[in-house]
Design goal:
- The chain has about 240 residues and is an alpha/beta fold.
- Helices cover about 20% and strands about 25% of the residues.
- The strands form three sheets. It has a seven-stranded mixed sheet.
- The two termini are about 25 Å apart.
Length: about 240
């Protein structure tokens, strides 16, 4: 079993994320993954959808429209925008939010439409089975303790780690492409530790066109080394899983 985020271990009886991947093998069929601005993605299956991390750096107005659930990894502005969620919830009474305690405390107005989840939790929403992995944000500042951060594994196939480098066995990784808390060696080490069949870079909203060229070069090099599909998804681009 591989499942680490700093000193992270699964709770008793959970069996590890690799066990979840095996149990859910084959469920992820005819799913479309669409990347929006920065770290936001939408997963659609059988005309139902969930959205992960529609923050302030996701400019697409319709990113949440029609989704049954929003999954939020942590409270930083580029992943979480409370007013946006409140507006979406008012427009669609079906919408629920699954997130960590650090985000939930900003969403008191949601009542029972916000569900607090933590490492090892498993829930079903919009036809997907979602497993939660991770507990804290990657170390980013010597004077500030890491905030809560939960990653989401969808149908045992695709993993969005938020702002953490949680290691587990998954076929498809949504890898942070650039961040103030991450170096290029961190990116490379994470890809090599995860060895996914596919990795799509997200979390790229802070870099200019030159930085994107550097990122894409690194991803291309690692794709050749690992014999995997590893590349950056452009905003608005979709892939079938």
């Amino acid at each position: 079993m591989r499942h680490t985020s700093e000193s992270l271990t699964p709770p008793p009886g959970f069996g590890g994320l690799d066990a979840v991947v095996r149990r859910l093998a084959g469920r992820m069929q005819n799913v479309r993954l669409t990347k929006f601005g920065h770290a936001c993605v939408r997963l659609e299956k059988d005309a139902r959808s969930v959205v992960i991390d529609p923050g302030a750096m996701t400019p697409e107005a319709g990113a949440i429209a029609g989704a049954e659930a929003v999954l939020v990894t942590h409270e930083h502005f580029d992943h979480f925008e409370a007013d946006r969620l409140l507006t979406a919830a008012a427009e669609d009474l079906r919408l629920v939010v699954y997130t960590c305690l650090g985000v939930a405390r900003h969403l008191g107005q949601f009542g029972d439409r916000v569900q607090v989840v933590g490492d090892g939790d498993v829930f079903d929403v919009a036809g997907f089975t979602v497993t939660v992995a991770g507990a804290k944000h990657h170390f980013s500042h010597p004077d500030a303790p890491p905030v809560d951060n939960v990653g989401f594994l969808i149908d045992g196939e695709v993993f969005h780690p938020g702002d953490a480098l949680t290691i587990t066995d998954v076929p498809t990784l949504l890898v942070p492409g650039q961040a103030p808390w991450m170096t290029v060696p961190d990116l490379i080490s994470y890809l090599r530790a995860m060895t996914p069949r596919r990795a799509y870079a997200i979390h790229d909203g802070l870099i200019n066109e030159w930085g994107i060229q550097v990122l894409e070069s690194v991803l291309h090099s690692e794709a050749e080394r690992l014999g995997a599909e590893i590349r950056r998804l452009k905003p608005g681009e979709s892939v079938e899983l």
